[in-house]
Design a protein that fits this description.
By secondary structure, the chain is an alpha+beta fold. The protein has 2 domains: about 50-240, Chemotaxis protein chec (3-Layer(aba) Sandwich); about 265-325, SpoA-like (Surface presentation of antigens (SPOA)), CATH 2.30.330.10. It has 11 helices and 10 strands. The longest helix has 26 residues, at about 50-75. Pfam families: FliM (PF02154), FliMN_C (PF01052). It is found in: Bacterial flagellum basal body; Cell membrane. Its main location: other.
């Protein structure tokens, strides 16, 4: 066991105290031999290491960034979501820590067992609802009197938000979040036994001028099959070394080959005024910035890629590719 290193002055003071009788060497020895007992609360069992908690925090940092982008696009206002804490506590303690009336969204995450709970503070939920209905994002906490329309809008919004959860877990396991329940009273929701250890990730959420918490509660039973993957060693692995399903590269290659891209043969360019544009009629001639002998530019996905010359094939207009366009945008040649 590593001991504390004493300075020379402390050593001299200790020797002086022993020699003058202020300290008894036998008592020091007896104290050293006594067993040191560490208090352990079985009702608050710590079933996750600090390393695993850090991995969960890292995953939900990514989820917070995804939620920030999602809610900002949906609500069209300033949104900021960030992880403020990750704790492992008994389920009963978590239920006691949240409001008596709040927004509770329950999700299954197959192939993992169990369910995950996302609790949204009513202030935040109503600010979101107000924005969705065309308001300024003001919060009016009346969660006890949710109408059927408000319930439907809220549950739909949080269902779509939680669909992004799979992206945060993609480096650990591929999950398929599915909403199973929507509740406002925590006492009516019993996901696991009261003493079951859960991990609670608290996200501080700002919607316009309203601030509140979003808590994600993950029971131990959900994380148990993937605990070995919640380690720094696993996260630091080279992604290229991870196992890939058979035929994954082949399927990806097939999908890329079937992707469609617009191909445009550009004769030339010109610029005219709005007045000239409004006066255009059939038979008018417009001067381009190219001559008859110049090569055409072939654009793939709006990016210049080839030069070509015009012609006909079976009475249809066609172009013949002459060369690559050098130095063009995204040019890998």
């Amino acid at each position: 066991m590593a001991g504390e290193i004493l300075s020379q002055n402390e050593i001299d003071a200790l020797l002086s105290a022993l020699s003058t009788g202020e300290m008894d060497a036998d008592e020091l020895k007896k104290e050293e031999e006594e067993k040191k007992v560490k208090v352990y609360d079985f009702k608050r069992a710590l079933r996750f290491s600090k390393d695993q908690i850090r991995s969960l925090t890292r995953m939900h940092d990514n989820f917070a960034r995804i939620l920030t982008t999602f809610f900002a696009a949906q609500l069209r206002t300033y949104v900021q979501v960030e992880v403020v804490s990750t704790d492992q506590i008994p389920y009963e303690e978590f239920i006691r820590s949240i409001p008596n009336r709040t927004i509770l969204n329950v999700f299954e995450v197959p192939p993992l067992d169990g369910r995950i709970l996302m609790e949204v503070n009513p202030n935040v939920a109503y600010a979101m609802l107000d924005r969705l209905l065309g308001g300024r994002g003001e919060s009016v906490n009346k969660v006890e009197n949710l109408t059927e329309i408000e319930t439907r809008i809220m549950s739909s919004m949080f269902d779509h938000a939680f669909e992004n959860y799979r992206e945060a877990w993609v480096n650990i396991v591929e999950i398929d979040p599915v909403a199973t329940d929507f509740e406002v009273n925590p006492q009516f929701l019993q996901m696991v036994s009261p003493n079951e250890t859960v991990v609670v990730i608290s996200l501080n959420t700002t919607i316009g001028e309203t601030t509140g918490m979003i808590n994600i509660c993950i029971p131990h039973v959900v994380l148990e099959p993937i605990i070995p993957k919640l380690s720094v060693h696993y996260w630091m692995q080279n992604p290229d070394k991870k196992e890939r399903s058979p035929g994954e590269a082949e399927n990806l290659d097939k999908r890329i080959k079937k992707a469609s891209l617009p191909v445009i043969a550009e004769l030339g360019q010109t610029s005219i005024t709005i007045e000239e544009f409004l006066l255009i009629s059939e038979g008018d001639i417009m001067s381009l910035n190219t001559t008859v002998g110049d090569a055409l530019t072939i654009k793939v996905g709006n990016v210049p890629k080839f030069s070509a010359q015009p012609g006909r094939v079976n009475r249809k207009l066609a172009v013949q590719v002459l060369d690559y366009v050098k130095g063009g945008e995204d040019d890998d040649e």
